[in-house]
């Protein structure tokens, strides 16, 4: 008698546990459905953002300007290379012009050009920034 009762209670608790599991599953399901929705969005924003093709096609160069120098003041690129040049002013107000490539940034920003002319090309500050303005020069070496 007692044994059969235990079996019954076990069976009952089992079915209860199953029911509990079922309800947990559905709530877990809705919870997990919101979690992956945020995960793939982060993943998809990552993969096309810096596509391998874009980073290999375009050479990113960052130049910082201060009174009265550019850093770096010598940039080497390959002939035909697309260059994405970003100017950042760390001190004072400066521009960056590369007459040979018709580039003229009058303020911090980004410009893209193709280094399609071999040789050395001067770049210089294009904003009158003070006493050292004329000395703010650098060169792009296209090889
Ligand atoms: Cu200047």
Structure description:
The chain is 38% helix and 35% strand. The chain has 143 residues and is α/β, with parallel strands linked by helices. It has 2 domains: 1-49; 53-142, Cupredoxins -  blue copper proteins (Immunoglobulin-like, Sandwich), CATH 2.60.40. It has a 4-stranded mixed sheet with strand order 2-1-4-7. It has a 3-stranded mixed sheet with strand order 3-9-8, with no helix packed on it. It has a two-stranded antiparallel sheet with strand order 5-6. The radius of gyration is 32 Å and the shape is globular. The N and C termini lie far apart (95 Å). Residues 26-55 have low confidence and may be disordered. The structure holds copper (II) ion. The site of copper (II) ion has 7 residues, from loops.
What descriptive keywords fit this protein?
143 residues, alpha/beta, 2 domains, 3-stranded mixed beta sheet, 2 helices, 9 strands, globular, binds copper (II) ion
What's the layout of helices and strands?
Blueprint lengths: L1 H48 L2 H6 E9 L2 E3 L2 E4 L3 E9 L6 E3 L4 E3 L3 E7 L3 E6 L12 E6 L1
Parallel strand pairs: 1-4, 3-9
Antiparallel strand pairs: 1-2, 4-7, 5-6, 8-9
The chain binds copper (II) ion.
The site of copper (II) ion has 7 residues, from loops.
In summary, what is this structure?
It is built from 2 helices and 9 strands, in the order ααβββββββββ. The protein has 143 residues and is an alpha/beta fold. It folds into 2 domains: 1-49; 53-142, Immunoglobulin-like.
């Amino acid at each position: 008698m007692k044994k059969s009762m235990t079996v019954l209670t076990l069976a009952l608790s089992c079915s209860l546990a199953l029911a509990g599991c079922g309800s947990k599953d559905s709530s877990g399901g809705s919870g997990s459905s919101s979690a992956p929705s945020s995960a793939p969005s982060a993943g998809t924003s990552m993969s096309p953002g810096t596509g391998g093709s874009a980073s290999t096609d375009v050479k990113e160069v960052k130049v910082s300007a201060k009174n009265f120098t550019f850093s770096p003041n010598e940039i080497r690129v390959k002939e035909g290379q697309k260059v994405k040049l970003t100017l950042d002013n760390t001190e004072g107000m400066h521009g960056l012009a590369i007459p040979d490539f018709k580039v003229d940034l009058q303020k911090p920003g980004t410009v893209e050009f193709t280094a399609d002319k071999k040789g050395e090309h001067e770049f210089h500050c294009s904003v009158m920034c003070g006493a050292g303005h004329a000395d703010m020069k650098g060169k792009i070496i296209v090889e």
